[in-house]
Write a structure and sequence with these properties.
This protein has about 200 residues and is α/β, with parallel strands linked by helices. The chain has helices at about 1-10, 30-35, 40-55, 65-70, 95-105, 120-130, 150-160, 170-175, 185-190; strands spanning about 20-25, 60-65, 85-90, 110-115, 135-145, 165.
């Protein structure tokens, strides 16, 4: 138990760096979204991280679980530019070989994870990405499950396994680094946005 705490403490010093970070949006699809509580506020938060990632020129990848049955990604959160979409039948995105290939080719070290559901696709994808050697940053306010207990236990497990638990706003400011960043004004507008 102490060993796990030490590991988590050491990893917690790993700040997000713009040049080695990617955002993965996991399965925010029409049919899955319908059963998620407070989904309007949830989508608003996802849109913030997507817009910030675009401004800061961070790679964005989207996975879709069985899109023929569960529908496409919610259009509201899609980036304004074309993005990389990967369909899957397994719950983990590690099966998306082309996604993993692109992450490695870009020398991605840190992955920001948002999506649904916390205890299924988010959890399995995150743990597999962690095993593959990536630092996995879970946005606690941007992953969801149908049931609160599933979400809470998934967060606890992800933390115990070595994922870094954070929030959208924390991640955005980490990536921005300084108010002297030439894109800070645009980032600030995203943070101040009300739904």
């Amino acid at each position: 138990m102490v060993k796990n705490k030490i590991k988590a403490f050491k990893k917690s010093n790993s700040f997000l760096k713009k040049e080695s970070t990617a955002l993965i949006i996991i399965d925010i699809q029409e049919k899955l979204l319908k059963v998620i509580p407070d989904n309007k506020d949830y989508l608003f938060k996802i849109k913030k991280i997507v817009d910030a990632a675009e401004i800061l020129e961070i790679d964005i990848y989207i996975t879709e679980q069985n899109p023929l049955k569960l529908g496409k990604t919610e259009p509201y959160i899609l980036p304004s530019k074309d993005c990389n979409k990967f369909s899957k039948l397994t719950f983990s995105c590690i099966s998306c070989k082309e996604l993993i290939k692109r992450l490695n080719k870009k020398k991605t070290q840190d992955i920001i994870i948002v999506g649904i559901e916390s205890h299924i696709c988010v959890l399995q994808s995150s743990l597999d990405l962690l095993k593959a050697g990536f630092n996995v940053h879970i946005m606690a306010d941007a992953i969801k499950s149908r049931h609160r207990i599933d979400h809470e236990l998934a967060l606890a497990r992800l933390n115990n396994e070595g994922c870094l638990i954070s929030t959208i706003e924390t991640a955005i400011f980490e990536l921005c680094k300084t108010s002297e960043n030439k894109k800070f004004k645009d980032i600030s507008q995203i943070i101040k946005r009300k739904n």
